[in-house]
Design goal:
This protein has 64 residues and is α+β, with helices and mostly antiparallel strands. Helix content is 17%, strand content 22%. It has one helix spanning 2-12, and strands at 29-32, 38-40, 46-48, 54-57. The strands form two sheets. It has a two-stranded antiparallel sheet with strand order 1-4. The longest helix is centred in the first third of the chain and has 11 residues, at 2-12. The radius of gyration is 13 Å and the shape is globular.
């Protein structure tokens, strides 16, 4: 799946995300972030989000 996502990203010029549903505890939802919601990136950097940011998450912390 990662290879397919990379092809789509290369073709469209937009990053894509792939999730292993066996490791996601709940349904995925796409929503706008809450002001000052925090997200930790894969390189362990913390980002504060704005309500104009689109996020992929569930009832737990934001995934992407």
């Amino acid at each position: 799946m990662v290879d397919a996502a990379n092809i789509v990203m290369f073709d469209c010029g937009q990053p894509t995300h792939v999730f292993d549903l066996n490791k996601v505890s709940e349904k995925l939802i796409v929503r706008f972030a809450k002001d000052d919601e925090e997200l930790t990136t894969l390189d362990n950097k913390n980002c504060k989000l704005k309500s104009s940011n689109l996020v992929i998450g569930n009832l737990s912390p934001t995934l992407s």
